[in-house]
Specification:
The structure is a homotrimer of 247-residue chains.
Chain A lengths: L1 E6 H12 L4 E7 L2 E7 L5 E8 L5 E4 L2 E6 H10 L5 E7 L4 E6 L2 E6 L19 E6 H12 L4 E7 L4 E7 L4 E7 L5 E3 L3 E6 H10 L5 E6 L5 E7 L4 E7 L7
Antiparallel strand pairs in A: 1-5, 1-7, 2-3, 2-6, 3-4, 4-18, 7-8, 8-9, 10-14, 10-16, 11-12, 11-15, 12-13, 16-17, 17-18
Helix pairs in contact in A: 1-2, 3-4
Amino acid sequence: MFKAIVSAETLRTALDSVSVLVDECKIHLNEDGFAIRAVDPANVGMVDLTLDASAFESYEADGGVIGVNLSRLENIAGMASSGQLVQLELDEETRKLHIQIEGLEYTLALIDPDSIRQEPDIPNLDLPAQIVIEGRDIDRAVKAADMVSDHIALGVEEADELFYVSAEGDTDDVRLELPREDLIDLSAGQARSLFSLDYLKDMNKAIPKDGEVTIDLGEEFPVKLHFELAEGQGSVTYMLAPRIQSD
Amino acid sequence: MFKAIVSAETLRTALDSVSVLVDECKIHLNEDGFAIRAVDPANVGMVDLTLDASAFESYEADGGVIGVNLSRLENIAGMASSGQLVQLELDEETRKLHIQIEGLEYTLALIDPDSIRQEPDIPNLDLPAQIVIEGRDIDRAVKAADMVSDHIALGVEEADELFYVSAEGDTDDVRLELPREDLIDLSAGQARSLFSLDYLKDMNKAIPKDGEVTIDLGEEFPVKLHFELAEGQGSVTYMLAPRIQSD
Amino acid sequence: MFKAIVSAETLRTALDSVSVLVDECKIHLNEDGFAIRAVDPANVGMVDLTLDASAFESYEADGGVIGVNLSRLENIAGMASSGQLVQLELDEETRKLHIQIEGLEYTLALIDPDSIRQEPDIPNLDLPAQIVIEGRDIDRAVKAADMVSDHIALGVEEADELFYVSAEGDTDDVRLELPREDLIDLSAGQARSLFSLDYLKDMNKAIPKDGEVTIDLGEEFPVKLHFELAEGQGSVTYMLAPRIQSD
């Protein structure tokens, strides 16, 4: 059983954070909200999304799992204007999701959850450095790195208490340094890892520019990026595997 | 003889309603205004446009016919900003149209009207249902149908007094229901016909979102869509042939 | 030695005026400001740009010359928002330009100036007519001509004291006439020359729409277009060779 009403904006924001990594996913319709975990086909980027029941206008579910094509669900949600409400109702028999937006009814065929790539276990890493940063600064770093390279290094200089982002191209280099006073918070620790810029560009699309993002970083370790959605009633954690530094 | 001055906006709106169906057309320069009738090359969609002399700042004509390339005439009208006036004058001898927009003079070569596809006779149908609807609701229906199919059904449920639009795709379906209270007016009658979405998408481009549209609908019959232009001093009627329902 | 701070907007405007013609150029880092002269590969269009030291927040230079890839330098300047400052510093040893924008440091590899196309001598022509015109009128003329042809004639009718722009296509013609009262100033003299529209379209991109442009025009002679940048603290002169009229 699943029946819920949610603002189009909240639904879109939640789905976007997953669709930057995968095309299809399982949605867990838990009693206390809905949850998605997914990993991209190359096993490099993972996402863990939860949207609490309180983020919905109304929410009833009893723990089922459905499989959805994300771009189709996003297109439907895109039919609503920001203020409009989207009503979702699962038809258990036909395995279809009925979606209503002010007189418009869309019947979405679901996907067999068993045919969807298995959900990842997101490891509990103990990473030495934590940076709390504005979303717009991540955007700036990613765009600057993109001008010179397809890799990006994130690091912390413990002694100087600063977070840096750097990228080295064939001819040009880019470096962005943010000292403690330009960050929301910093727990300095020795940390530096290299990442594929493509993935970070995709994740950056879903990061709210005016929100805060918590980055957990280590020495040649995966990075975790965490931020909230729907005024704190939803949360997204991305994990991105590092690239091996080649010199 | 033809000499007229018209606001760029009025001219553009009038031409756009025809150019969504055909590239070239005949313009009848009648004494009381100008008129265009045209049918698309596949004989599926027709348009009947009139623009009264009162929609012009000044208008003098004596009943001639000219042939024009619509996209070129639209590009010229597009050079003017919304508030500007466009002055049109026919040179009978050279068969060219002189178009002036504040110091800019464009000389447009006309097309021999005999080389243009013959104008259609728009049949006088007696259709059982009439729906008066806001342009933006047609837009919404067309966009929703476009997500799942390339056909769209328009219909009226006589007993429930509602107008509906539905589209069935390979996996997903869409249905928009508008009861009498969400319409401007409804004369309910048994009616349902299936149409090619491509044509309706083209016609929708020319339908003013904030204007009202009168739809005449029957049972597997052509649909008529009628709306006004230029604050009521112009009018457009589209007619679209139905597709045969294949099951 | 070169070290300067300049608003992102001023830097971008100056670079744009050169990059419409060439991809790479030499920048002369003179004591009193920086200067660029360049000619396009076909020797048809030339640009002469100066940006006075007073256009910068701070400026120190001793007469060196650097070679730069313009699109890369423009992309970097594009990372700054309009109000932000860009700090430029030449590292003489590594031949790299360090560019800083609020915590972001970009290291740009320079190009050997000797590998860049030689700078043109811009001839001192004594042209019989001078037109001072608003940038937006050039924009209008170029867009109108582009609808019918890939050539554009600029001319002055001495007796009528008017400046005209005309273009003749295979079927349609365009003519824009601006009498003295619609110009900022006019020194009438016999003048008419034909130009390639592609070049004038490129130059038009860099011409400020709300600024004034001085046009020096002759009889089958090159045209000079002159305008100011950075509130008068910079200046651009374009010179464009005429096309031979073929009839």
